[in-house]
């Protein structure tokens, strides 16, 4: 299954070739490790998890599944970083475009995740896909909570 995640990441990078990202196969393996059996990958992209466009060595792979957003990086020698954002934790997404690249800020209840060095052409698709899915899922949570009351 990680090959499917890797293929989606490569397809996104080829479609929007201005995005700066490295070692996508390694990052895809980390995402696969944390992917549950009942989850389907809906969308994938990559970028640098930092505020600066000058730092190009913090590549993270991001996937949107039917349950959550997953963000992962395989470290160079050992270990990895992994972050999961469920729909009830999601607040907002902000796009900031610069001269060469764009930045995506995913705001959650606990923290703000910044992904930079993303192709300016890609951010519209990323924002639309994530926002549409999260708003649909939040409505489901709202309906489930009303039924319990």
Short description:
With 149 residues, this protein is α+β, with helices and mostly antiparallel strands. It is built from three helices and seven strands, in the order ααβββββββα.
Structural summary, described in words:
- The relative contact order is 0.17.
- It is globular, with a radius of gyration of 15 Å.
- With 149 residues, the protein is α+β, with helices and mostly antiparallel strands.
- Helices cover 34% and strands 34% of the residues.
- The chain has helices at 2-15, 24-34, 123-148; strands at 41-48, 59-65, 69-74, 80-85, 90-97, 101-108, 112-119.
- The longest helix has 26 residues, at 123-148.
- The strands form two sheets. The chain has a four-stranded antiparallel β-sheet with strand order 1-2-3-4, with helices on both faces. Strands 5-6-7 form a three-stranded antiparallel β-sheet, covered by helices on one side.
- A hairpin with a 3-residue loop joins β2 and β3.
- The protein is built from three helices and seven strands.
């Amino acid at each position: 299954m990680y090959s499917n995640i890797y293929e989606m990441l490569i397809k996104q990078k080829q479609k929007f070739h201005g995005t700066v990202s490295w070692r996508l196969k390694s990052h895809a393996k980390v995402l696969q490790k944390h992917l549950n059996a009942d989850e389907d990958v809906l969308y994938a992209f990559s970028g640098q998890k930092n505020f600066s466009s000058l730092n190009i060595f913090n590549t993270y792979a991001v996937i949107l599944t039917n349950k959550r957003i997953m963000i992962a990086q395989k470290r160079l020698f050992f270990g990895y970083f992994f972050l999961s954002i469920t729909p009830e934790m999601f607040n907002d997404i902000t796009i900031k475009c610069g001269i060469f690249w764009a930045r995506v800020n995913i705001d959650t209840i606990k923290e703000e995740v910044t992904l930079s060095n993303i192709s300016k052409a890609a951010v519209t698709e990323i924002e639309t896909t994530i926002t549409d899915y999260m708003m649909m899922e939040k409505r489901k949570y709202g309906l489930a909570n009303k039924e319990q009351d």
